[in-house]
Amino acid sequence: MTGWLKSHFPNSFIDIEVQKGYSRPDIIVDNVAIEIKGPTSKQDLESIYGKCHRYLQEYPSLIVVLFNVKVSEDRYQDWESGIKQHFPDVVILRKEQSFR
What we know:
Trna Endonuclease, Chain: A, domain 1
């Protein structure tokens, strides 16, 4: 994955799972933290609230990538509304099929 990112963002700092303070996002591209979950369960969604709080103390931007969300659509919509309310600048990307 870092090879693809470095080839598409050659002038960017890219690293994986770097500990900074109490945060350790899956991927860092410059000052953007990226958290990846999949398949995504109810517990995974709940854990993202705390990660948003921690990561945004260390990084100015956060992208959350969700694969194969395994919760009801109502629960997902409630979760997404809560994230947008408390962390309006967090970008959420959702993909239902995993890469093969």
